[in-house]
Specification:
PEBP_euk, signal, PEBP-like_sf, PEBP
């Protein structure tokens, strides 16, 4: 009987450990408490400038393995490609979500006349499967539309209403269209109202430093158009 109990206990611990690895694989647990996150977002004036309500959860994200964590610093090269990992808590398997990446300090913190600059927009995302969502605005990292200095890029996700797909009526991009006209000077608050999106589910943000040397000049050469060159 004793050996049976010991074996059962060992089996439970093994299963428990496997479940923990499965549930939290790739999901770093941040040290910030909800109040700490609120203070960070308010300090950076993301709430209420960008959206009125505090997101309920943390969005987890990596760029080629480097974690995005409430304003930590990245170089333009590090965010040249879209995140290789984004995750957030979901409300059931049939829920659909809308993801935005917004430039807050475009072209600069001092004169953010192109806020909210849309670096990326994906709608109709089933759960957290971004690849199965509808990419409405292609991803664009940092470029020569940014002045030298520090720039915040906010990632925020909304749950779409009624668990149904939305038809997004946003600007169609062409390679000849200037970036400022195509992506800049928008309102995330008005966008959410337009499509009846709920309060933001999760958010996180990074800071990109554009005073570092641009080691890939060819990448920045096309930045007079709205769509990245493939």
């Amino acid at each position: 009987m004793k050996s049976f109990i010991e074996a059962s206990t060992l089996f439970f611990l093994l299963i428990k450990g496997h479940m923990a690895e499965t549930l939290f694989a790739g999901k770093p647990l941040l040290e910030e408490t909800p109040s700490d996150k609120k203070q960070i977002l308010e300090k950076h004036k993301i709430v209420p400038d960008i959206f009125a309500h505090m997101p309920k959860h943390v969005m987890f994200g990596h760029f080629e393995g480097k974690e995005m964590s409430f304003g930590n610093s990245f170089t333009p090269d590090e965010i040249k490609k879209k995140p290789d990992y984004l995750d957030w808590p979901t409300n059931g398997t049939k829920a659909l979500y809308c993801l935005l990446a917004i430039g807050i300090d475009v072209p600069s913190k001092k004169e953010p006349k192109l806020r909210d600059f849309r670096h990326w927009l994906v709608g109709n995302i089933p759960s957290t499967d971004i690849e199965r969502g509808q990419e409405i605005i292609p991803y664009l990292g940092a470029g020569n539309f940014l002045d030298e200095g520090s720039h915040r890029i906010l990632f925020v996700v909304f749950q779409q209403p009624y668990r149904r797909k939305l038809k997004f009526y946003e600007r169609n991009f062409t390679r000849r269209e200037p970036i400022a006209r195509a992506r800049g000077n928008t309102s995330t608050l008005k966008f959410a109202e337009k499509y009846g999106l709920n309060e933001p589910v999760a958010a996180n943000f990074l800071t990109v430093e554009t005073d570092v040397p641009k080691s890939t000049p060819d990448y920045y050469a096309h930045m007079t158009t709205g769509v990245p060159r493939g």
